[in-house]
Design goal:
- This protein is α/β, with parallel strands linked by helices.
- The chain has a domain of about 290 residues: ABC transporter type 1, transmembrane domain (ABC transporter transmembrane region fold).
- It is about 65% helix and about 10% strand.
- It has 22 helices and 10 strands.
- It has a 6-stranded mixed β-sheet with strand order 6-7-8-3-9-10, sandwiched between helices. It has a 4-stranded antiparallel β-sheet with strand order 2-1-4-5, with helices on one face.
- Strand 4 and strand 5 form a beta hairpin.
- It is elongated, with a radius of gyration of 37 Å.
- It starts with a helix and ends with a helix.
Length: about 600
């Protein structure tokens, strides 16, 4: 687990190395000041309370004596000088003030070490969010057909927040506490290697208990995050389908479904929180057991006749040992938090590691469209179900400036076919060419810059009318937007709005009617001025009056462009240069409207069904 953690840390924390170095330095200073402040306990005990009758003489620092003996001797010497000159009470005051100064330095470094980590924590979380968002933008449409939007949103929000709370917040502990533990244990070894060796025999057992609990926590956290995703998916479906829920009086049914998911989420969280809450009491108990055993063993060493371990040194030793418990507890807390965060990181990694099947070649060709689009023996099946072919051996030529219409029953493959041209998906076999060059040899950006889309459902954004029309066109002026809106028969209703083109249209254009939304999307396509236009049943969801206005706008839009139109209402494509009838993924008929009627085949049946 920690190997994976350090791999993730190396990936995301590399830009913030300076903060890590600053934290390490400040934590080292904090540990030194802490040890030095504890060292003042010994002279207070030995001299102030007359437990040490020895007369100390100053030893030069370059005398070559053992550094431990030299430091203790001179410390005791200075304290005795203070006692002789000012008395015990004043000396105690001086030592107390000095202790307070050291404590200020220690806590200042302690605070600084945490404060310097804040930009790292927030930076890493921001980088993860932007990386996930960028990855979502780059993934093909097939990814979104295989994953629920609610689950993706849960990974983007809840899982990233969990990484922030569990992993990045633990990073401070992982830097600070090992430094304190190493410094404290270094001093413990210096004071008594025998007693410290005995102490170290106990520590692996404590670490093993913590590790066992933390390992199970990761599995439980992953289950809890999956349940959270389910609840968010349910909420997303409810908000998206609230009109149908109310129309079918299904509030109770949806409430029961959400209650069931919420109860499962609660049970999963109960397991996680109970195990996480056990971190402090378990570490407290184990730490107390360690102190008790060491106290017994150390006391035995002092009570021996030939003991070299003085009582004051033992008290200092026990003070340091007790102090090491807090960083050990925090380290164990990190050991609990990290598995919880790693479970969320696993879910985020599934997005970051998702493969984009739309590959670009290293040396793409310059794109131009002067003659035709040709589909040659095109077959297609989705990656998650390669055995089920959606399109079978499609051959189609679309001359520049011509209009080709695709008709057929739902599920016949019309939308899938037009999605292949801008490379929302890649063909399974066969090829799509523009002027004889396979579209996979062009840059995706260049290819899509040739193409404009008007879909059955007008996809708009929670922004102003101006920004929705100018979407994807850099530097569009108000004059250009107004001209595009006039061509799309949208200018009049826009000017009736109180704020005109600066009117916010709400979530997905909810403040506009269906016909108004569609005309805004047509204006957006007009402004892009694409050479190739794809119309995906652009008028099928509109009333008669709106359809007439939208159809007029479409006629203006398609008059000078190569158009591929998916038609639900056959009356809208009577004048198409070629109509292709799809059935179960195959083109079964093709020709102009009158020719197809004369064939008395599948197209005529569709036409008669709509004219009855």
């Amino acid at each position: 687990m920690f190997k994976e953690f350090w791999k993730i840390l190396k990936r995301f924390a590399s830009p913030y190395k300076g903060y890590l170095v600053g934290s390490v330095v400040l934590n080292l200073l904090s540990a030194v000041f802490n040890l030095f402040s504890f060292a003042l306990i010994m002279p207070i005990l030995d001299i102030l309370f007359k437990t040490d009758k020895k007369v100390y003489e100053f030893m030069p620092w370059d005398s070559g004596a053992d550094i431990k003996d030299l430091a203790l001797n001179n410390l005791y010497y200075y304290v005795t000088q203070l006692v002789d000159k000012f008395g015990g009470s004043t000396t105690l005051l001086f030592i107390g003030l000095f202790f307070a100064l050291i404590t200020v330095l220690k806590t200042g470094c302690y605070f600084g070490s945490s404060a310097v980590m804040v930009p790292l924590r927030t930076g890493v979380v921001r980088d993860i969010r932007t990386m996930v968002y960028g990855k979502l933008l780059s993934l093909p449409l097939g990814f979104y057909t295989q994953n629920k939007k609610g689950d993706i949103m849960a990974r983007m929000s809840g899982d990233v927040n969990e990484v922030e709370h569990s992993i990045t917040s633990s990073l401070d502990m992982l830097i600070k506490n090992p430094i304190l533990i190493i410094a404290y244990f270094g001093m413990l070894i210096y004071l008594s290697w025998e007693l410290t060796l005995f102490t170290l025999v106990i520590v692996p057992g404590i670490a093993w208990v913590m590790g066992r609990i933390g390992k199970k926590l990761r599995r439980q956290s992953l289950d809890a995050q999956n349940k959270w995703s389910e609840s968010l998916s349910q909420l997303e479906e409810t908000l998206g389908g609230i009109r149908i829920i109310k129309a079918f009086i299904a509030e109770d049914k949806m409430q029961k479904r959400y209650n069931s998911i919420s109860n499962q989420l609660r049970k999963a969280h109960n397991k996680v929180f109970i195990r996480q809450s056990s971190a402090h009491p378990v570490s407290e108990l184990l730490g107390t057991i360690m102190i008790m055993i060491v106290l017994w063993f150390g006391g035995t060493l002092i009570l021996m006749d030939n003991a070299t371990f003085e009582a004051s040194t033992f008290i200092y030793y026990m003070t340091i040992l007790y102090s090491v418990l807090q960083p050990l507890k925090e380290l164990s807390k990190a050991g609990y938090n990290i598995p919880k965060g790693m479970a969320s990181m696993d879910r985020i990694q599934k997005i970051l590691s998702a493969q984009n099947d739309i590959k670009e070649i290293e040396a793409p060709k310059e794109i131009s469209f002067d003659e035709e689009i040709s589909l040659e023996d095109v077959c297609f099946s989705y990656g998650d179900n390669p055995d089920k072919e959606i399109l079978h051996n499609i051959d189609l030529k679309i001359k520049k400036g011509k209009t080709v219409a695709l008709v057929g029953q739902s599920g016949s493959g019309k939308s899938t076919l037009v999605d292949l041209i801008p490379r929302f998906h890649d063909v399974t076999s066969g090829s799509i060419k523009i002027d004889g060059t396979d579209i996979r040899e062009f840059r995706v950006k260049d290819l899509r810059s040739l193409i404009g889309n008007v879909n059955q459902e007008a996809i708009l954004f929670n922004d102003t009318i101006f920004n929705n029309i100018a979407f994807g066109v850099e530097g569009a002026t108000m004059e250009q937007v107004v001209e595009a809106a006039k061509i799309a028969n949208a200018h009049d209703f826009i000017m009736e709005k109180e704020e005109g083109y600066m009117t916010n249209i709400g979530d997905r254009g909810s403040k506009l009617s269906g016909g108004q939304r569609q005309r805004i999307s047509i204006a957006r396509a007009v402004l892009k001025n694409p050479q190739i236009l794809i119309l995906d049943e652009a008028t099928s969801a509109l009333d008669t009056e709106s359809e007439k206005l939208v159809q007029e706008a479409l006629d203006k839009l398609t008059s000078s462009r190569t158009t591929i139109a998916i038609a639900h209402r056959l009356s809208t494509i009577r004048n198409a240069d070629e109509i292709c009838v799809l059935h179960e993924g195959r083109i079964v008929e093709r020709g102009r409207h009158d020719d197809l009627i004369a064939k008395n085949g599948y197209y005529k049946k569709l036409h008669e069904m709509q004219t009855i």
